[in-house]
Amino acid sequence: MNRILLLLIVFLTALSSQPAEGKTRWRGQKQHIYRFYLRDKKDCGFSLDHPSRFLSAKALERRRRQHLRVDSTDLPLSKIYLEKLRVKGTRIVGQSRWNNTVLVASADSSLLHLMAQLPFIERSQHVWTSPDSIEEVVKMRYHEHYNRWDSLRGDPFGMGRTQIEMLNGERLHEIDLRGQGMTIAVLDGGFQNVQALPCFYSTHIAGTHDFVTQVIGKNGKNNDDDNSFYMGIDHGTKVLSAMAAQSAEVLQGTAPEANYWLLRCEDPTTEMPIEEDYWAMAAEYADSIGADIINSSLGYNEYDAPFTRYHLQDLDGLTSLISRTASMLAQKGMVLCCSAGNSGMNAWKKITVPADAFNILTIGAVNADGKNAPFASVGPTQDGRVKPDLVALGSGTALISGRGTLIHDMGTSFSTPVVCGLVACLWQGLPKKTAGEIITIVRQSASQYDEPDNIFGYGTPDFWQAYLVGKMEER
Fold this sequence. Notes:
This protein is an alpha/beta fold. It folds into two domains: 32-133, Alpha-Beta Plaits, CATH 3.30.70; 148-474, CATH 3.40.50.200. Helix content is 27%, strand content 19%. It contains 13 helices and 16 strands. It has an eight-stranded mixed sheet with strand order 8-11-7-12-13-14-15-16, with helices on both faces. The chain is globular and about 65 Å long.
């Protein structure tokens, strides 16, 4: 009897050490990543007097057009400090100019802890540890044709008419404001099948970049396989479809003629603080490639153990690295459209970071009748600012899935790109406006601008009204 019991214990122990069904072992050596905050940018090798030496021509042109100053956050990191962080057993895997931070990876966490004591390190944070196993995302087959009941005969907007008419956005399309000449960076976690789906055949995809693979590699392997970019989850596919889809009588996005950069900065297999670093790196990349607008349908308030979670008092636009980064975007000449979060029905309830950032458009969700979607996160910020800023149709939004099917999905993830695309159309029609002026004029057009609250914010924006006001201001 004891022998049988012993065998059972051995069997159960072996079973528990195996990855769960549907998961694969993390390949490669156990790794840790620390975020180091540098004290200054001493001896960075560049000067604000010669910004063309460290900023792209597109980034400089955007600042010039909006009369924005280049400042110390734009300067590269100190070459001396970076060199001192390149020690045996470590790798620099990422950095942020705007936050003056460096990501350093090593198999030896004690070595990283010792490096945190260096005199030029202001503080440090453990932001990533390789997991024991992950769920592999497999590319799904897709459909090239829609069901006949998914179309509205004779209607170019198709099933997207409700979400665009709610914001009076069809009026912009009627005068040929469809996002031409505007560049939108889509920060998300996966763009499954975007390169193959018919609804994106006419979409102007300017480029892609995978920040997750750049930093941690693919399941422990430090390589970046371009062929795998479109094999992830389809959250970004659905987000993109709300703006860029062009399938007559089925779905037309809110900015079908805009240029798009697809930036993967969310790892769907884990939830760790490094997600904020990916996001910051993607935002700075968006600056360099000349993006006008960023759509981010990502948000955070807690991380996998043993990493800590945020508290409500942290929703001040300054505490989290991701929110500090987001708060800089208007100063760089970009508009951020950010999802409020979907915590309205759980214990957290409030917006998630970076939705608490300054000078951005945080988007909540309503249904087709204009009633609040109960899952949508609410405000205000900890320092009393109105959040969300706006609401749009997020319950449920007409989208195209990674399988190529028309769906109606729920989430502030999907109300956000509906607004974002129309911001691009509006800015196309008001090219002399700055990012800050566009944010202001959109807020002022909203249905309850004079009496905002913590659920609807300033209300539902009216993009036609915003356009008319903007044109009058130009006279």
